[in-house]
Each structure stands twice: as structure tokens, then as C-alpha cells.
Design a protein that fits this description.
Elements: H1 9-17, E1 23-27, E2 38-41, H2 51-59, E3 64-70, H3 73-76, H4 78-87, E4 93-96, H5 98-104, E5 110-113, E6 123-127
Parallel strand pairs: 1-5, 2-5, 3-4
Antiparallel strand pairs: 1-6, 3-6
Length: 131
């Protein structure tokens, strides 16, 4: 049994398998997930697990070189944007339309669905390298 870090086997395996520039999406309960992309559904009930909890757990194990968010987040959920800025200091954040964000998810390695009910609480984490 794993002693530390992410205990969820699918999430742990996806992170371990990421290469440079691969994309992992962490999303709220409502983001549509393309059928061709691996879905890791963590949602239990409203808010469980939350977006912030999930991002923090993934961030502890994943090297992230860039984030992508929907520009609508800035107006509708600025606290989520602030959380991401604080969680990933110095990491560039690309802002695109929500429609473009949904299209970009088709290229993700996997999408982790949380129980978050905050609008636009979605992020694409682009993998970096540790060397």
C-alpha cells in the first residue's frame, strides 16, 4: 500500500505517466468530458472533493509548467483564479474562451472530475519536466 501522496490509483497512475506538455484537466462537476478522454470521476456529493483540494493534491506530485483557464473565470469566480495564482507562483496562466477551453480538453491525457459546484472551476495543467 502506498504510504504518502495521492492514494487514488487512477490519478496517481496518470500523473506518473505524464510526459512533457501532456495535459491533465481538473474540473468542476459540470464540465462536459469528451468520450474519448479518460475520465477519473472523484465527485461524491456537492463540493466533495473540492476543486482546491484536488488541485493541491495533484500539484504536490506533478511538475506544472503552464496553466490554461477559461477567461470567464476572472469575472464569475475570481477567487478560483486567485487560488490558482497563489498555488502556482510564477507559472504562466493562459486565458481562453470557455468554448475554446472545452475544445482543448479533447487533447487531454485525462480529466479529473471533482464535486465542485463553483462556475468555471476548471484548469488544464500542462506538464513540465523536473530537469
Amino acid at each position: 500500500m502506498k504510504k504518502i501522496g495521492i492514494l487514488n490509483q487512477p490519478v496517481s497512475a496518470v500523473i506518473a505517466g505524464l510526459g512533457h506538455l501532456d495535459m491533465l484537466v481538473i474540473c468542476d462537476a459540470g464540465l462536459p468530458i469528451p468520450p474519448e478522454v479518460r475520465r477519473i470521476d472523484l465527485a461524491l456529493t456537492e463540493g466533495v472533493p473540492g476543486f482546491a483540494q484536488t488541485v493541491q493534491a495533484v500539484q504536490s506530485e506533478m511538475m506544472v509548467e503552464r496553466l490554461v483557464i477559461a477567461e470567464e473565470m476572472l469575472v464569475r469566480s475570481p477567487q478560483i483564479f486567485e487560488f490558482l495564482q497563489e498555488s502556482f507562483p510564477g507559472v504562466p496562466i493562459d486565458k481562453i474562451s470557455h468554448a475554446s477551453f472545452k475544445e482543448r480538453t479533447h487533447q487531454a491525457t485525462a480529466i479529473v472530475r471533482t464535486g465542485e459546484f463553483t462556475p468555471y472551476a476548471n484548469v488544464i495543467l500542462i506538464a513540465g519536466v523536473i530537469f
